[in-house]
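hey
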């Protein structure tokens, strides 16, 4: 008989180690203190004031925590839970996750439990459904609530919309929009949104079909070169009072790998168009760096934005490969 621990035993050990490694941070949250200093703001800089996330009325900051990075993994509790706890310690207001992001929701649930009973209510918590039918969407919602350890989502989003056929399914009889209506009526969901990075016209059409509260779309300086979201989705959202959340702001890290722009430039660019931008983080250090960008000057002036767009335009295809 093997003496090797089973997969279940290894997972249990990983969870226990995650919670032990997070104890200091969680205690600091509960006490209102900090185990280590946050990054210093630039001399003379002050944190950017909160913005209103469209008709939700929620107050968000320019930079928020995404559900990817180390959070889009399986069995990495020891690294992932402290990342969330550090974001909570630094006062993050908006947290993103999704059923499709492997164990992301489980990590959030563990972090909220470790941080104490008030931690969940201090953030605007967003998750998603990739199911296009009513019953499938409701099953995903109940599973999300269980894994997150909460009785409601502040925002539930129809995830990764790509084709008109999907919209027809969602808004047709027995579609996911019926799940949205039911969940809003019974309090499991407070606001509804849509997400996509494939085809901007699909998101525009979705906004025409239903009064969503938010839209999550791709925003980075390569956007104007092809299938732009800024002059279509963002403009339509602003016209309708829909909150705008930015993603893909670093093009999955390619803009940084190529040294085409600095993290601060990319955050300032995207957050000049969106109410908040979500960034997946791989470590506590990345959380501190990214959330520290809240103290950068916003918005980025138009001339600076145009110069950044021109700088990345020659390789724009490398930075918008997620588009249709």
């Amino acid at each position: 008989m093997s003496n090797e621990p089973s997969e279940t035993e290894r997972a249990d050990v990983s969870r226990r180690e995650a919670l032990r490694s997070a104890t200091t941070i969680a205690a600091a949250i509960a006490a209102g203190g900090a185990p280590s200093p946050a990054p210093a703001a630039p001399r003379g800089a002050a944190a950017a004031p909160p913005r209103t996330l469209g008709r939700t009325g929620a107050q968000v900051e320019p930079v928020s925590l995404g559900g990817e990075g180390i959070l889009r993994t399986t069995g990495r509790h020891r690294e992932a839970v402290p990342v969330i706890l550090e974001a909570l310690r630094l006062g993050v207001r908006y947290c993103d996750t999704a059923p499709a992001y492997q164990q992301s929701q489980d990590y959030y649930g563990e972090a909220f439990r470790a941080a104490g009973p008030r931690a969940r209510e201090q953030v605007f918590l967003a998750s998603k459904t990739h199911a296009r039918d009513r019953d499938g969407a409701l099953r995903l919602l109940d599973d999300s609530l269980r894994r997150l350890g909460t009785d409601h989502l502040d925002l539930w989003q129809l995830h990764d919309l790509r084709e008109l056929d999907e919209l027809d399914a969602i808004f047709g009889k027995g579609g996911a929009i019926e799940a949205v209506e039911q969940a809003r009526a019974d309090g499991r969901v407070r606001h509804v949104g849509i997400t996509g990075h494939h085809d901007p016209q699909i998101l525009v059409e979705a906004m025409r079909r239903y009064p969503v509260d938010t839209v999550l779309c791709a925003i980075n300086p390569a956007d104007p070169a092809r299938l732009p979201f800024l002059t279509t989705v963002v403009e339509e959202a602003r016209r309708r009072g829909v909150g705008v959340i930015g993603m893909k702001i670093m093009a999955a890290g390619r803009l940084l790998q190529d040294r085409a722009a600095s993290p601060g430039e990319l955050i300032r660019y995207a957050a000049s168009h969106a109410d908040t931008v979500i960034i997946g983080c791989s470590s506590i250090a990345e959380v501190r760096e990214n959330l520290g960008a809240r103290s950068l000057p916003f918005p980025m002036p138009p001339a600076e934005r145009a110069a950044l767009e021109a700088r990345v335009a020659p390789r724009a295809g490398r930075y918008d490969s997620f588009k249709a």
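The CA atoms of residues 134 and 173 lie 9 Å apart. Confidence is low (pLDDT under 50) at residues 1-14, 32-45.
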